[in-house]
Design a protein that fits this description.
- The protein is of the alpha+beta class and 167 residues long.
- It has one domain.
- The chain is 33% helix and 34% strand.
- Strands 1-2-3-4-5-6-7-8 form an 8-stranded mixed beta sheet.
- The longest helix is centred in the middle third of the chain and has 33 residues.
């Protein structure tokens, strides 16, 4: 199906609709997956989902610097040194120093944007909500695909955690 706001989408029976979206992040353009979730009662994309997406994309250029700062802080305060190998040299490669915008941009890559179903926005989060999911290079090989998830409530950073926060 082709949606005027989201473009070309295919229905995924488990989650909702899947598509692609171009997102500029740190002066690099990425083609990321777009997931628009639904409940078993919903038959189409809702106006609330369209509004959340449009508002987010409109404010995205200004959100990036706050996001980059927040991701650096999250890395250094929450993830860095949280676990790792006993070998000191290997441990150092797991946890590189990330204090600058450029260092962060080398360590994370946007992968997916999730637009949750209306219940999540209305009852759980209390406003427009969008998740951005990132892969990351630190912490050894990411066998469980933990990555980073960032939730935006009304186009402001609400939470940062592993990317399963979106599900």
């Amino acid at each position: 199906m082709t949606d005027l706001i989201f473009g070309e989408l295919s229905e995924d029976g488990d989650y909702g609709w899947l598509g692609k979206q171009t997102l500029d992040f740190g002066e690099t353009s990425y083609t990321i997956e777009l997931l628009i979730t639904k409940s078993s009662e919903e038959s189409g994309i809702t106006e609330r989902q369209k509004e959340a997406f449009q508002c987010f994309m409109e404010k995205w250029p200004k959100l990036q610097s706050k996001l980059i700062e927040a991701l650096i802080k999250y890395y250094n305060e929450e993830e860095r040194f949280a676990w790792g190998p006993d070998d000191e040299a290997e441990f150092e490669t797991w946890w590189p120093e990330i204090e600058t915008r450029d260092a962060l941009l080398q360590a994370v890559t946007p992968e997916t944007m999730v637009i949750p179903w209306d219940f999540t926005m209305e009852k759980v989060k209390g406003g427009r909500y969008v998740y951005l999911l990132f892969s990351r290079t630190w912490g050894g090989e990411d066998w469980d695909d933990n990555g980073i998830g960032v939730g935006f409530l009304n186009e402001e950073i609400d939470e940062i955690a592993y990317k399963d926060i979106a599900f």
